[in-house]
Specification:
Strand order of the largest sheet: 1-2
InterPro entries: Cyclin_PHO80-like
Strand content: 5-15%
Order of helices and strands: EEHHHHHH
Protein name: Cyclin
Structural class: mainly alpha
Number of domains: 2
GO biological process, one term: cell division
Organism: Triticum turgidum subsp. durum (Durum wheat)
Largest sheet: 2 strands, antiparallel
GO molecular function, one term: protein kinase binding
């Protein structure tokens, strides 16, 4: 398998060396992975678009992280996680955790 990134191509030998395993083990893992996904390497445009949207959201978050926890109130953080709901701090913290609002789970538990 070759992976190209900005005109640089990396093969299994490179990834094996970086990962600290033998080339034989890397090749085995590749074949095992391919059988595991039944060689289904195609992605629908809709799935591709949804993954792109998630990655773009995460990149925007990394480029513009929220202010530090000391600079904002817990209520405003919870409103960011749950914008369409009334915010009862204790109930909202539980809801944010259950809903998977990963950006603020750590901040809420601090």
């Amino acid at each position: 398998m070759f992976v190209c990134c900005e005109c640089r191509c990396y093969n299994n030998a490179y990834f094996a060396r970086v990962g600290g395993i033998s080339l034989m083990e890397m090749n085995y893992l590749e074949v095992d992975f391919l059988f595991g996904i039944a060689f289904d390497l195609n992605v629908t445009p809709a799935v591709f678009a949804s993954y792109c949207a998630v990655l773009q959201t995460e990149m925007a978050y990394l480029e513009h992280p929220p202010p530090s926890i000391d600079a904002v109130s817990p209520t405003s953080l919870l409103q960011h996680c749950l914008p369409d709901q009334e915010v009862d701090t204790a109930a909202a913290a539980t809801a944010a955790t259950k809903s998977g609002c990963h950006r603020h789970q750590q901040q809420l538990t601090v």
